[in-house]
Design a protein that fits this description.
The protein contains 30 helices and 48 strands. The protein is an alpha/beta fold and 1091 residues long. Strand 43, helix 26 and strand 44 form a beta-alpha-beta unit. The longest helix has 14 residues. The chain starts with 5 loop residues before the first helix and ends with a strand. GO terms for molecular function: ADP binding.
């Protein structure tokens, strides 16, 4: 049953600080009703790594996720799972098995069969709340946590308990009805709710939720109903939703409130009524509970329609006003053709996709469909990264109020855009190729929000932007000397708020001109960036200081950035304590400033970055901004501090000995980089410091700060003396590099080492030694980079190391293990050896690393053999890459481990020569194989019969410059192969029919950069009955007739991509070409989607 509090209970566990400290990583992923294994796996990977992934293959995603979880104790919450398919659940959970013992997965679901499919060892069945708990929850929401509330009388309690009884123990219903009654101060209102006929309605919508909706004001009801446009569990941001409401005409300005302020109030009301709730995955987003989403869909009726992936509209769209759709990789006209009947359509909204980052949209869809939707108010075409132009017909949609074309390849906007006189919001962020804005932008008199974030090619603003009196958001303004583009245009925009970046300030000549921007009057401006042209020839003069002085913002500012300022000093307002809300300051490349502004008295300052101040010699008392009478300790709120590229900085004066411990007492991260003359002094008492990095400071003599034992410390390219000044209590994680002579025994002799206290990374230590008498057992990660004096590494010194990486250690010859400790490498899960030209041997008898999952060996030119007995001693090895090892001739006797899932062989000529002895057929788990020959490869025909294992699903063959053809029998047993990539084979002329006809499971075939390829036999293509995706790129000699008949038989083909193949595409505008390829839904020719 929904609404029992399953997600809430999981959230309490997930957010508990003790729980979070117990695990190496924690991740929350909302799975939802529409189960897509690829999408879910990709989302988990992106949450775990905190970065987006471009991988489009499930197997590769799982391998990468497995690697990221390897050896880590993790907590993963899979929220709202519906899929009960056991095989799919088993595949989904495969990467989780690589985690450390003690890892936990929490699954929330309404279906016990799902829990069984996920092989849950313990199932908690939530029941309805007991009566007294129901009452406590209700009272908490209805009486605002105030037990002594004037409403908390006997009469209210009696009615309230009767209402709670009708909620049948469901927390969601109780919470929602309590939030509704919070605003009802009259007994009669409570009585009306108690006796409402809605309690007796019998349908899938909870009566308590319907009651909550009924008691919303009418103007908020339509805002709530509009949210049915979002799928279940879809996250949305407040300010974005408010802009959509505004575009639909749901918000009306008052004498004292803007439309945005009204929308914020409506949004807050829906949050207070528990109809919106904070997202667990993104703290900036909100979601609706599934049952509340059902309510929104119920009340919106036929006016809202959601078009899912792989579906088309069969609904009668005559009444439809709002359409959203799950974005697919390729969008063509056919998917949306029924919308031609939706004459009153107001919303055409592309929703963000979690599974892909790049999308195509056909010109026909834009050219033919959009002009028919003349009532559109909202149009979202963002993230179509190949969208390079908008049709001129966009100007005919005169009711349009919201246009989002961000993250596209647009180079220019049509002039007709300026006919959209009702436009309120125009989003152009991350349009990296956009060069100009339409010259008549000043005609968009109702424009309120113009987002130009990350548009580096826009070098000039249209004239007279100051006429856009309604403008509130303008993220970027380019100042020029052209008439109508001066900084005074900003002064006419009295309502600017949010973030503003001003560029081209070298074109402002005086205080008067700068003051004309009226920044001091813009009280809602929170983030300000002031930018001069980098490398400008502007003379250093007092006028520059006057210009900056004239740009003083309002005291409500929160973030300030100043780049490439050409003045010799800062005006007094920079750092003045009258700016109480500033939390972040970034000062960069102010090369002529001889002193820093007095920033120490900014009470809220948390983040400070100072980069490229060539004129600074001493950071002294002026930096702290303190006076004798001041009782305020400087930088009392600062958490992040960075000094970088301060070429002449020599000394950092402390804040007075008598005040030691007062300044920086909350500082958590300190970075000092590329300050070549800095000798000292550093603040000594930093009780909150968590990260300290000192890099490229070769003259640093000062003692290091006294930090907590949990501090992460990195010292690179500094004097050896600084190591001896290290505090006795060494850090949790230590990285040292660039020290020509480091004796580890001497280094650690005076130190008390906590768990993990030894260096996890050693860089550029030319004379490093590793004494065997030290205890290295606490070490879990070891990275040795550029440590040239190391000739051998005794691996048994590090019995608990999980991740070992060795790079560019030019004198390293061997890895060794004492015979009595051969079985001590059980912790090792990842080993990388790169760029060690003299490395020749692994431990005698092989690597006894039973948990090693990933092995990478790259550019070890002298290595002649791989570890012995790999097939037996590395039973967990799943990923093995070998690259640039030109003297390795064979794999070990009896081959590679049967556990191997992914194998990559790059630029290993001698190894490829012995390929018939690889015994890949014995690798039952091998799924992915990449063979990249390299520029010296002399292979002429490939692959030979019997070379490749039958269980492969992914095969890449690349960089065989002398390859002329594929062995006709080389692919004959690859009946499981799904993806085949062939690239950079300069002399490949043909692919025989025998080479293709056995690939009956092939779904993706990519042929790229084969300049002499002339023939692909149609007889071979006809047998690719499972082929879905075919890409041919940079094959200029391949002729159309070689593909024509073969492609017509590929009934499963859904995507055909042809790029830079002129002989293939020269007839694409002819009717015959379109007719013969009409069965292929998506055809991309030279980056254009063709209908």
């Amino acid at each position: 049953m929904g609404g029992l509090g399953k997600s809430t209970l999981a959230q309490l566990v997930y957010n508990d600080k003790k729980v979070q400290k117990h695990f190496d990583l924690v991740a929350w992923v909302c799975v939802s009703e529409d189960f897509d294994m690829f999408k879910v796996t990709k989302t988990i990977l992106e949450v775990v790594t905190s970065s987006t992934s471009d991988i489009q293959d499930l197997n590769r995603l799982q391998l990468q996720l497995k690697e990221k979880l390897m050896g880590k104790k993790f907590l993963l919450v899979l929220d709202d799972v519906w899929n009960r398919n056991y095989p799919e659940c088993e595949i989904l959970s495969n990467p989780f098995k690589s985690g450390a013992q003690g890892s936990r997965i929490i699954v929330t679901t309404r279906d016990v069969d799902v829990a069984l499919a996920m092989r849950a060892f313990e199932i908690h069945h939530l029941k309805e709340l007991q009566d007294e708990d129901c009452w406590k929850l209700f009272a908490r929401h209805a009486f605002l946590h105030d037990a002594n509330s004037y409403m908390h009388s006997h009469q209210f309690e009696e009615l309230g308990r009767q209402i709670v009884e009708k909620c049948k123990g469901l927390p969601l219903a109780i919470k929602t009805i309590g939030a509704l009654l919070r605003s009802k101060v009259d007994v009669s209102d409570w009585d009306e709710v108690l006796n409402s006929e809605i309690w007796s309605f019998s349908n899938e919508i909870l009566p308590a939720l319907r009651l909550s909706y009924r008691h919303l004001p009418s103007y908020i009801k339509r805002c709530f109903a509009y949210c049915s446009i979002f799928p279940k569990d879809h996250p949305f941001k407040k300010h974005e939703l408010v802009l959509l409401w505004m575009a639909e005409g749901f918000l009306h300005e008052t004498k004292y409130k803007t439309m945005e302020a009204v929308g914020n109030y409506y949004f807050g009301t829906l949050v207070s009524r528990s109809l919106f709730q904070k997202s667990n995955e993104d703290e900036l987003c909100f979601v609706m509970h599934d049952l509340i989403n059902d309510l929104a869909k119920f009340v919106s009726g036929e006016f809202t329609f959601r078009l899912e992936v792989d579906s088309r509209s069969h609904q009668n769209v005559n009444k439809t006003r709002h359409v959203s759709y799950a974005r697919d990789e390729y969008e063509n006209f056919k998917r949306f053709e029924t919308l031609q009947e939706a004459k009153q359509l107001r919303t055409f909204l592309a929703l963000k996709s979690a599974s892909r980052n790049c999308f195509y949209i056909s010109k026909k869809l834009l050219r033919d469909l959009l002009p028919m939707l003349s009532c559109l108010r909202v149009l979202n075409l963002s993230n179509y990264r190949e969208l390079c132009e908008l049709p001129e017909s966009i100007g005919k949609i005169t009711q349009l109020r919201y246009l989002d074309i961000s993250h596209t390849a647009l180079k220019r906007l049509p002039d007709s855009l300026c006919k959209l006189y009702n436009l309120q919001t125009l989003k152009l962020s991350n349009c990296g190729k956009l060069e100009t804005l339409p010259r008549d932008m000043q005609k968009l008199v109702n424009l309120r929000h113009l987002d130009l974030t990350q548009t580096p090619c826009i070098m000039e603003m249209p004239i007279h932007m100051g006429k856009l009196k309604c403008l509130q958001t303008l993220t970027k303004f380019m100042v020029s000397k052209r008439c109508g583009c001066s900084i005074r245009e900003l002064g006419k925009l009295a309502n600017l708020r949010g973030a503003l970046s001003i560029l081209g300030l070298e074109n402002v000549e005086s205080f008067t001109d700068a003051e004309g921007a009226c920044l001091r009057n813009k009280m809602d401006l929170k983030e300000l960036a002031l930018n001069w042209k980098k490398g400008s020839n502007t003379e250093i003069s007092e006028s520059q200081r006057d210009v900056l002085n004239g740009l003083q913002p309002h005291r409500n500012l929160k973030s300030l950035t100043i780049n490439d300022y050409m003045g010799g000093s800062f005006p007094n307002w920079v750092g003045d304590h009258s700016f109480p809300y500033v939390t972040s300051i970034d000062l960069e490349n102010c090369k002529y400033c001889c002193s820093l502004p007095a920033l120490g008295q900014l009470l809220s300052l948390q983040n400070l970055s100072i980069v490229g101040f060539d004129g600074i010699v001493v950071v002294g008392e002026e930096f702290y901004g303190s006076t004798g009478s001041s009782s305020i300790k400087p930088f009392g709120a600062l958490k992040f501090l960075k000094f970088e590229q301060m070429l002449n900085w020599e000394k950092w004066s402390s804040f007075g000995e008598e005040n030691e411990g007062g300044a920086y007492h909350r500082l958590e991260k300190l970075y000092i980089r590329r300050c070549s003359k800095l000798t000292g002094d550093l603040p000594l008492h930093l009780p909150s410091l968590g990260i300290l990095e000192i890099t490229d400071c070769p003259k640093m003599l000062a003692s290091l700060p006294r930090a907590t034992p949990t501090c992460q410390l990195e010292l690179t390219n500094c004097r050896e003396d600084i190591l001896r000044e290290m505090p006795i209590h060494v850090t949790k994680e230590l990285t040292i590099g660039g020290f020509d002579a480091v004796d580890m025994g001497d280094f650690f002799s005076h130190m008390s080492l906590p768990v993990g206290g030894l260096p996890s990374t050693l860089n550029n230590c030319k004379k490093l030694g590793l004494p065997i008498n030290l205890d290295y057992s606490c070490l879990e990660v070891l990275k040795l980079f550029d440590c040239d004096s190391l000739r051998s590494i005794p691996m048994d010194l590090f019995p608990n190391v999980k991740d070992m990486a060795i790079r560019s250690c030019t004198d390293l010859e061997s890895l060794i293990v004492a015979e009595q400790h051969q079985h001590d490498l059980v912790a090792l899960s990842s080993l990388t050896i790169e760029g060690c030209p003299n490395f020749v041997s692994f431990p005698r008898g092989g690597l006894h690393a039973t948990n090693l999952g990933k092995l990478k060996i790259e550019n070890c030119k002298s290595l002649r053999s791989l570890p012995d007995k790999m097939h037996m001693l590395l039973p967990s090895l799943s990923r093995f890459w070998i690259s640039g090892c030109t003297n390795i001739e064979t794999f070990p006797e009896r081959g590679l481990p049967s556990s191997l899932n992914e194998l990559g062989i790059w630029d290993c000529d001698k190894l490829v020569e012995s390929r018939m002895g690889w015994s890949l057929q014995n690798l039952a788990s091998l799924r992915e194989l990449e063979i990249i020959g390299g520029s010296k490869s002399d292979v002429v025909s490939f692959p030979e019969k019997g070379l490749l294992p039958t269980n492969l699903i992914f095969l890449m063959i690349s960089e065989f410059p002398n390859l002329t053809s594929f062995d006709k029998n080389g692919f004959e047993n690859l009946t499981s192969l799904k993806s085949l990539y062939i690239s950079y084979c300069d002399n490949l002329k043909c692919i025989s029919k025998e080479g293709l006809q056995r690939l009956t499971s092939l779904k993706r075939l990519y042929i790229c950069n084969c300049p002499k390829l002339e023939r692909m036999p149609e007889e071979g293509l006809q047998h690719l009955t499972s082929l879905e995706d075919l890409a041919i790129i940079n094959c200029p000699k391949l002729e159309y007739c070689m593909l024509e008949e073969g492609l017509q038989h590929l009934t499963s083909l859904s995507v055909l991509c042809i790029e830079n193949c002129p002989l293939l595409t020269k007839r694409r505008k002819e009717k015959e070409w379109r007719h013969k390829f009409a069965h292929i839904p998506f055809k991309i020719v030279d980056e254009e989607l063709i209908d």
